[in-house]
Each structure stands twice: as structure tokens, then as C-alpha cells.
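Input chain follows. Return C-alpha cells only.
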Amino acid sequence: MSADHQKHDGEVVDSSALLACPFCGITDKEFVSSDECNVPAVALHQWPHSTFCVQCEACGCSGPMANTGESAAEQWNTRKQSKNKQTR
């Protein structure tokens, strides 16, 4: 499995498809230190009872909870369009 793919509870999610954090701008290609190791700054997380969300380890922002990793990634990547700037 490549480094751009993460496996969660039997589900493989392409983390290279995650957009940068909407608050701090860090991407999933950047890493932050966490408990003596480096982790992707933006990553998909699985919580108890098979719920998922994408979280920014740099600023703590998290996307909506979802029933699948794919849905969590899609919701993270959905941004409201600004009148001045189109982000997605």
C-alpha cells in the first residue's frame, strides 16, 4: 500500500485527494511531530463505532463526522464558495 493511501477498518482511502486545511493552509504532504514521530498534518481518522473524520494535526480543525472514510474525505474537500474567490 502506498504512503498516499490509508487503510481504516478494511477501507482504503486515497489521502492524496485531501485538500489543505481551510484554516491554517497546511497540506497532507506536510508533517507535524506527535509523540516522538512525524505524522501527516492533514489525515483521515477513525473513531470508535466506525465513524470517520479528517483532522488537521497542526491547528486541530476537523471536518464533519461520517460513516465512511470516503464520505469524510469528500466532506472535508467540500468548501463554500466565496463571492471573491472560488475554492472548489
